[in-house]
Design goal:
heterodimer, A: 245 residues, alpha+beta, six-stranded antiparallel beta sheet, B: 183 residues, mainly alpha, 75% helix, 0% strand, globular
Chain lengths: 245, 183
């Protein structure tokens, strides 16, 4: 094996990789240990690779992507394996859905009405299943304290961790774009209010009548203005939603 | 697969999948879409626990195929394949250069590598798949993976050098910035 051949093989070697013990690397590794020039080249390769890999591991997915994936799976009505694996009628129905998705591919939600439906399902599902709370008082209170010019952050802050974790607003991800959620109460009813930038979702209807609906026991309304699309979700019913608008 | 198992699957793989998608798609929104679409396909196809052991390879493979479906293959990809490996010695300063750059600069450099090299190179650095699994995911022979890694690393080093130059050119001396702002 020439050094060039060894370099070719070692270009795929990673000491931290699951295949580091693969016999295919053995001869080239041995040669790198015995040949000083190849050994120097290999050491530099490893250092360079480790540095790049470390930088890539620092890339953090956007906030809310995980929640969007989970919510999207639930919104798609994903059943358990046994639920539809073993039932021919549901299997046939699922096959129809798959054909639909397969034909349409990623285009399946690109029609305005379908994308709006997907957004509304996402908002309802997020309201039902995600970790968020009532009205964000803890966040608001802490924000007020932090914004005061005489508040010293090095001192003790009135942090109620449990309240912060379960209440307040969040930025979540829907179809690759940020959606801001705010929670509030009005007249004793709890509402979840989602705000999207229209520019991020050009395939959503840019205007039109307010879209009311119910899903999984939640009522929702979706509407738009010049710059934003909004979805309000509540378990208090359509009447409560209508009173907001 | 139960909802709990699906959540575990997402938790285990969505971050490296996103990094792979980001290198391919070159923007966060499309990368997020690709990751969501990949898990959506998994969910709608109802993969069972028996397949969980192969889930990682399946997810990376599916994401890559979804990316390819989104755009036509570059005709240059096949001709580049014929080029010989271009592995040169790496000067020590190039290693130090990576350490000086931030993650986003390294990602931008990686995104500038030609796609035919970029996909195997990203999978290589992510260290989630073996080189054999990378070959399977990209549907190319093992030797081709090694060849592409070799070429891709050369392109990445060149891009990193440019990235550092660009970053350096953006540095404005404090005194000049201050003076300029007030004049």
């Amino acid at each position: 094996m020439t050094n060039e051949e060894a370099k070719f093989i070692l270009s795929a070697y990673r000491p931290g990789g699951g295949d580091a013990a693969d016999p295919a690397f053995a001869a080239a590794l041995t040669q790198a240990q015995q040949d000083p020039a190849l050994g120097t080249w290999f050491a530099q390769q490893q250092r360079h690779g480790a540095a790049v890999a470390a930088r890539l591991r620092e890339i953090v997915p956007p906030a809310g992507l995980r929640e969007a994936i989970l919510a999207g799976a639930r919104a798609s009505g994903r059943p358990s394996v046994r639920a539809w694996w073993t039932r021919p009628s549901l299997l046939a129905a699922a096959a129809s859905v798959l054909v639909l998705f397969g034909v349409a591919g990623t285009m399946w939600w690109r029609s305005p009405s379908m994308q709006l439906g997907r957004l509304e399902a996402f908002a309802v599902d997020d309201t039902l299943h995600a970790r968020h709370g009532s009205h964000g008082e803890a966040v608001s209170a802490l924000g007020t304290v932090l914004s005061q010019p005489d508040t010293h952050l090095g001192g003790t802050l009135p942090v109620d961790f449990a309240a912060l974790r379960t209440t307040g607003c969040r930025t979540i991800n829907f179809a690759g774009h940020d959606v801001v959620e705010l929670c509030f109460t009005r007249g004793g009813a709890e509402f979840h209010f989602y705000v999207l930038q229209q520019a991020d979702f050009p395939r959503l209807p840019a205007s039109g009548a307010i879209d009311f609906g119910q899903r999984e026991g939640m009522a929702f309304a979706s509407w738009t203005d010049a710059a934003h699309r909004y979805v309000a979700v509540s378990a208090a019913g359509l009447g409560a939603i209508r009173q907001l608008l | 697969m139960s909802s709990e198992a699906f959540t575990q699957l997402v938790d285990a793989h969505y971050a490296p999948l996103y990094r792979f998608a980001l290198s391919l798609a070159r923007n966060s929104a499309d990368a997020g879409d690709l990751v969501q679409q990949t898990f959506f396909i998994w969910a709608t196809k109802g993969h069972g626990l028996r397949e969980a052991a192969k889930a990682k390879s399946w997810l990376f493979t599916t994401l890559y195929r979804e990316f390819l479906r989104g755009r036509r293959r570059d005709a240059r990809a096949t001709s580049i394949e014929d080029l010989p490996p271009g592995e040169a010695d790496i000067p020590a300063e190039e290693v130090d250069r990576v350490a000086r750059l931030d993650a986003s600069t390294v990602m931008v450099a990686l995104q500038s590598v030609e796609e035919v090299f970029r996909a195997p190179l990203t999978l290589f650095y992510l260290e989630d798949l073996s080189y054999q699994e990378i070959a399977a995911a990209l549907d190319v022979p093992i030797g081709t993976v090694m060849s592409r890694l070799s070429r891709g690393k050369s392109q990445l080093r060149a891009a990193l050098a440019q990235g550092e130059s660009a970053a350096a050119s953006k540095v404005v001396p404090f005194s000049a910035a201050k003076g300029g702002g007030r004049s």
